[in-house]
Amino acid sequence: MSIRHLSRLDRLLMAGEHALEAIAGTPPATRPSPAAGIAES
């Protein structure tokens, strides 16, 4: 498996996303689950 090397911009965007999640929390899912009608086994 190849190792992914992220650019500086990618790392900056990731840090910004993590900061926003720390401040505002993880956003709730807005779409229903596609498996909502299937019983668990």
Automatic annotation (TrEMBL):
Keywords: Ubiquinone. It comes from the Bacteria. This is Demethoxyubiquinone hydroxylase family protein.
